[in-house]
C-alpha cells in the first residue's frame, strides 16, 4: 500500500540509496569454506611471487648461466637489496639519515627493481609493523605463524581496515616517492626485468640469461631475503635488548638480509641508521650509508646515545639474571620468619631437640646439619650454639666468604626481637642507668 505521508516517499528513496551504497563485507570477514577459498588468495601476488619465480627456475634449467651474467646478477642483487635495506627501510620508513637527491633517485630506482611494491606502500606497512608488533594490527605478525609472516601475508588477502594506522605524511610530500608510486608498474617491469635483460644482452649478447638470471632469479632471491626479516628475524636468535616482543638478533639472518638480522636492536632503536653496532657484526647496509656520508651523498646519520643502548642491554641482562635467581634457594624470606625474643632463643637453644641455634646479625639459624661439614671443624661452630656469633662470623674469628653467607641464608629459622647480646646489654644498661646515677649522687 502506498504511503500518503508527503515525505515518506523521500525517506524511502533515501533508505534505498543508503542501502545500495553499503559496501559488502571484506572477504576476510566471511567464513572460509571449500567453495570460496580461492577468493581469499591474492592471485596477482601469487603470480609474481610464486608462479613467475617457478617459471624462471624452470627456464634456467634449459639455459646455461654465463660467467658475466652471473657476476652482473650478483652485483645487481646487492644494489637492489640496498634499495630495500638502505632506501625503503632505513631512509624512507625510519628516516634514519638524510640522502641527497641523486642518492634518493638511485635508491628509488634499484629499490623498485627488487619487486616488492612502491616505497609508499612498503613503508606504510613497515611503520604499522613497528607500531603494532606481534598484534592483530601487525600486517605480518609472526604470532600468526612463521610462514604467514614470511609469505602468507603477501599471497593471502588482508583486510586493510584491520592493519594498524601509520602516519605517512612525509612520504606523501616526497616527490620521488609519489612519482615512483604513481608509475610503479612501468618502473618495476623496467628495473626488474627489462634493465637487466638489456645490460646482459647489449653487454655480451646473453639476452635470455639476463632476463632469467639477472631478472627473475635475482628478484626472487632479493624477495626471499627481505621476507626473512619478517619471519626469520622474529624467530631465530637472541634478545639482548628486550624480550617482550619477538624480534631477535642472529648472524645468519644478517648474512641473508644485508645486515638486517640484528632485529632486536633495530626494534628497540628503530631510528638508528645501524642495525649492527659492533665493528665485527655484518651490516653492509650500515657500511654503505657511512660511505655515502664520506662521499657527501648522505648526512645526519642518526645514532641512539650509547648510554641508552647500554641501559637497555643491562636491563635485559638483569631480567635474565632475575629469572635464574628465582630458580635458586635463597632461604626463607625474613618477612616470613617467626619473631623470637632473646630469652626464647636462649631457652630453645638449650632444649636439646636436635637443633643447633645460632644468632648472627639479628637472625636465628639452625646449623645442626652443617656442624660436621664445617670446613673449620665442628668445635668452632659448636662453641657458637646458643650465642650471638655476629662478630665471630664477620671477622672476629674468621671473615666468612660470600658462599658461606649464601649457604647460611638457607638455614634461617627466625628473627630476633631486640637483637642479640649487644642489644640486650644496651637495653639493660638503659633501664638501670638512672639507678647508677642515683648511687653516684649519694656517694
UniProtKB/TrEMBL annotation:
<dbReference type="GO" id="GO:0005789">
    <property type="term" value="C:endoplasmic reticulum membrane"/>
</dbReference>
<dbReference type="InterPro" id="IPR001522">
    <property type="entry name" value="FADS-1_CS"/>
</dbReference>
<comment type="similarity">
    <text>Belongs to the fatty acid desaturase type 1 family.</text>
</comment>
<keyword id="KW-0275">Fatty acid biosynthesis</keyword>
<feature type="region of interest" description="Disordered">
    <location>
        <begin position="1"/>
        <end position="24"/>
    </location>
</feature>
<dbReference type="InterPro" id="IPR005804">
    <property type="entry name" value="FA_desaturase_dom"/>
</dbReference>
<dbReference type="GO" id="GO:0020037">
    <property type="term" value="F:heme binding"/>
</dbReference>
<keyword id="KW-0443">Lipid metabolism</keyword>
<keyword id="KW-0479">Metal-binding</keyword>
<feature type="transmembrane region" description="Helical">
    <location>
        <begin position="187"/>
        <end position="205"/>
    </location>
</feature>
<keyword id="KW-0560">Oxidoreductase</keyword>
<comment type="function">
    <text>Stearoyl-CoA desaturase that utilizes O(2) and electrons from reduced cytochrome b5 to introduce the first double bond into saturated fatty acyl-CoA substrates.</text>
</comment>
<dbReference type="Pfam" id="PF00173">
    <property type="entry name" value="Cyt-b5"/>
</dbReference>
<dbReference type="Pfam" id="PF00487">
    <property type="entry name" value="FA_desaturase"/>
</dbReference>
<keyword id="KW-0812">Transmembrane</keyword>
<dbReference type="InterPro" id="IPR001199">
    <property type="entry name" value="Cyt_B5-like_heme/steroid-bd"/>
</dbReference>
<keyword id="KW-0276">Fatty acid metabolism</keyword>
<feature type="transmembrane region" description="Helical">
    <location>
        <begin position="69"/>
        <end position="91"/>
    </location>
</feature>
<feature type="transmembrane region" description="Helical">
    <location>
        <begin position="43"/>
        <end position="62"/>
    </location>
</feature>
<dbReference type="GO" id="GO:0006636">
    <property type="term" value="P:unsaturated fatty acid biosynthetic process"/>
</dbReference>
<keyword id="KW-0472">Membrane</keyword>
<dbReference type="InterPro" id="IPR018506">
    <property type="entry name" value="Cyt_B5_heme-BS"/>
</dbReference>
<dbReference type="InterPro" id="IPR015876">
    <property type="entry name" value="Acyl-CoA_DS"/>
</dbReference>
<keyword id="KW-0249">Electron transport</keyword>
<keyword id="KW-0349">Heme</keyword>
<dbReference type="GO" id="GO:0004768">
    <property type="term" value="F:stearoyl-CoA 9-desaturase activity"/>
</dbReference>
<dbReference type="InterPro" id="IPR009160">
    <property type="entry name" value="Acyl-CoA_deSatase_haem/ster-bd"/>
</dbReference>
<feature type="domain" description="Cytochrome b5 heme-binding">
    <location>
        <begin position="337"/>
        <end position="417"/>
    </location>
</feature>
<keyword id="KW-0408">Iron</keyword>
<keyword id="KW-0813">Transport</keyword>
<keyword id="KW-1133">Transmembrane helix</keyword>
<feature type="transmembrane region" description="Helical">
    <location>
        <begin position="103"/>
        <end position="122"/>
    </location>
</feature>
<dbReference type="InterPro" id="IPR036400">
    <property type="entry name" value="Cyt_B5-like_heme/steroid_sf"/>
</dbReference>
<keyword id="KW-0444">Lipid biosynthesis</keyword>
<protein>
    <recommendedName>
        <fullName>Acyl-CoA desaturase</fullName>
        <ecNumber>1.14.19.1</ecNumber>
    </recommendedName>
</protein>
<dbReference type="GO" id="GO:0005506">
    <property type="term" value="F:iron ion binding"/>
</dbReference>
Amino acid at each position: 500500500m502506498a504511503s500518503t505521508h508527503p515525505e515518506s516517499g523521500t525517506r524511502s528513496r533515501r533508505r534505498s540509496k543508503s542501502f545500495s551504497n553499503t559496501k559488502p563485507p571484506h572477504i576476510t570477514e566471511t567464513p572460509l569454506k571449500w567453495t570460496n577459498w580461492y577468493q581469499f588468495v591474492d592471485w596477482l601476488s601469487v603470480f609474481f611471487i610464486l608462479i613467475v619465480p617457478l617459471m624462471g627456475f624452470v627456464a634456467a634449467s634449459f639455459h646455461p648461466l654465463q660467467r658475466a651474467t652471473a657476476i652482473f646478477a650478483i652485483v645487481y642483487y646487492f644494489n637492489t637489496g640496498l634499495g630495500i635495506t638502505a632506501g625503503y627501510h632505513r631512509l624512507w620508513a625510519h628516516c634514519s639519515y638524510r640522502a641527497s637527491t641523486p642518492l634518493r633517485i638511485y635508491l628509488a630506482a634499484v629499490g623498485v627493481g627488487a619487486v616488492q611494491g612502491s616505497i609508499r606502500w612498503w613503508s606504510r606497512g613497515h611503520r604499522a609493523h613497528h607500531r603494532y608488533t606481534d598484534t592483530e594490527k601487525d600486517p605480518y605478525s609472526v604470532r600468526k605463524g612463521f610462514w604467514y609472516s614470511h609469505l602468507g601475508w603477501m599471497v593471502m588477502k588482508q583486510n586493510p581496515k584491520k592493519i594498524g594506522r601509520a602516519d605517512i605524511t612525509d612520504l606523501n610530500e616526497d616527490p620521488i616517492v609519489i612519482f615512483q608510486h604513481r608509475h610503479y608498474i612501468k618502473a618495476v617491469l623496467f628495473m626488474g626485468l627489462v634493465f637487466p635483460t638489456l645490460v646482459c644482452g647489449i653487454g655480451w649478447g646473453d639476452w635470455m640469461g639476463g632476463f632469467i638470471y639477472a631478472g627473475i632469479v635475482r628478484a626472487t632471491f632479493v624477495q626471499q631475503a627481505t621476507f626473512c626479516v619478517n619471519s626469520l628475524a622474529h624467530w631465530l636468535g637472541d634478545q639482548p635488548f628486550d624480550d617482550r616482543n619477538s624480534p631477535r638478533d642472529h648472524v645468519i639472518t644478517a648474512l641473508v638480509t644485508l645486515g638486517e638480522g640484528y632485529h632486536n636492536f633495530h626494534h628497540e632503536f628503530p631510528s638508528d641508521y645501524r642495525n649492527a653496532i659492533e665493528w665485527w657484526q655484518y651490516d653492509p647496509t650500515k657500511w654503505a650509508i657511512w660511505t655515502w656520508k664520506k662521499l657527501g651523498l648522505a648526512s645526519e646519520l642518526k645514532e641512539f646515545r650509547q648510554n641508552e643502548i647500554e641501559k637497555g642491554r643491562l636491563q635485559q641482562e638483569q631480567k635474565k639474571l632475575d629469572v635464574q635467581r628465582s630458580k635458586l634457594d635463597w632461604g626463607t624470606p625474613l618477612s616470613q620468619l617467626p619473631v623470637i625474643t632473646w630469652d626464647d632463643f636462649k631457652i630453645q637453644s638449650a632444649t636439646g631437640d636436635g637443633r643447633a641455634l645460632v644468632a648472627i646479625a639479628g637472625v636465628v639459624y639452625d646449623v645442626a646439619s652443617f656442624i660436621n661439614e664445617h670446613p673449620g671443624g665442628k668445635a668452632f661452630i659448636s662453641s657458637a650454639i646458643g650465642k650471638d656469633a655476629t662478630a665471630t662470623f664477620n671477622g672476629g674469628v674468621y671473615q666468612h666468604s660470600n658462599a658461606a653467607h649464601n649457604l647460611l641464608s638457607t638455614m634461617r629459622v627466625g628473627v630476633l626481637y631486640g637483637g642479640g647480646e649487644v642489644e640486650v646489654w644496651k637495653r639493660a644498661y638503659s633501664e638501670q642507668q638512672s639507678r647508677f646515677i642515683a648511687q653516684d649522687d649519694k656517694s
